[in-house]
Structures are given as structure tokens and as C-alpha cells.
Amino acid sequence: MLDKFIGYIESGQYFIASIVVVFAVLVNIEKIFSIIDTQKKKRIGLLKEAIANDALSISLKEHFKNEIQGEYFYQAHKISMDKFKRDLVLDAHIKLDGDITFKQFKLANNHIAVVDGKLNIEISKLDSFSYYYNMFFGVLMAIAGFFLLFIPVAITDPTVYQVFYWLIICVFLIGFGFFMILQTLPLRAAKRIRTVINALEKSF
Predict the structure, then answer these.
(1) pLDDT of residue 192
(2) Contact 133, 123 (CB under 8 A)
(3) Could you give the C-alpha distances from 120 to 14, 88, 111, 191, 194, in angstroms and in order?
(4) Average per-residue pLDDT in the chain?
(5) Which is higher by pLDDT, 121 or 159?
(6) Nearest to residue 77, comparing CAs of 54, 94, 101, 108?
């Protein structure tokens, strides 16, 4: 695989070389994740050994315990948060009886902040603009891609190259359109969390 990649680079076939790289990553994606997971487990093991070391101070051991909790929390929910935010999210999840899922907390993570010891959802004007921008143009591009799929049918005796080239354009438009729509999910989750948390605070 490496020889082919180098050969394509030397011959100036950069597009094919990039396809080889993507294919290699996809084929070995399970091994890559396995290596990352192994490294995380080694880190947890080292932290546990450090906690058992009497030579370390109590404050350092507490820090390592928090690190272990953070690693397990990430492995369980794929969310990276500091201790204060993590504890508040767990508390909110329990109080809301699972009304807000950890997947929603993960999506809205960049909008979640800790202010005065409480969870605060921060949504700027730029965030709102990006939401409507991505939604509008995402839907527009996806619809355009679907409609353009039917154009080769109207062409008299299209060549295989023409059909293939047109399909690539359509797939790109549809794929990029859905990608833009997916970018709106974090803000939608943030708004949902803010609404539920505000209702929870008013009930107390």
C-alpha cells in the first residue's frame, strides 16, 4: 500500500494518492481505535498505580482520581469535560430523570459553561446566524442535488463519463448539504437543554 502511494505521488497522481490514503484509513480504522483505546487503558492503569503510592500527596492523589473518573466518563459517553462541569451535568441528568440524554450534552458541550456554580448555556448571535445559515443552505444544496440527479435522463445518449461526472456532483451536493444540516444539531441540543434546565430551576 505504501509503495503504491509513493508511486502515485512520484507520478503526479495526487487525487488517486489521496484515495489510497482514505482507503487505508478506512480499512485500518478498527486497529487505530484499538491502539487509542489501549493507550487510554494504560493511562488509567498508571493513574491507579500512582494513587496506591504512599509517597504522593493527598491532593495529587485526588487529582489523579478525578482524571480516572474523567477517562471512564469519556469512554462511557464520549464527552470530555472538566470535573466541575462533569459533576453538574451528572447532577442535571439525574434530576431531569434522563429527559436530557448524554448524547445531547455531548452535542451541546461547546455551549455549556459553568457560571456561579451552575450550568449555563451560552448561545451567541454568531451561533444563531450559523444555525440558520447552515440550515438554509444545507437544505437548499440537498434538494438541488436530488433534482440534479434527473438531468442525465434528459440528455440524449449520455456517455458513461458524463453520467459518472454528474453523479459525483450530485453526491457532493447532497452529502455537503446533509453535512451542513448536521452542523445545526449542537445548537438545537443547547436550546433544548437550556429550556429544560430553566424549567427545572423555576420548579424549585
Answers:
(1) 92
(2) no
(3) 47, 10, 8, 11, 8
(4) 83
(5) 121
(6) 101
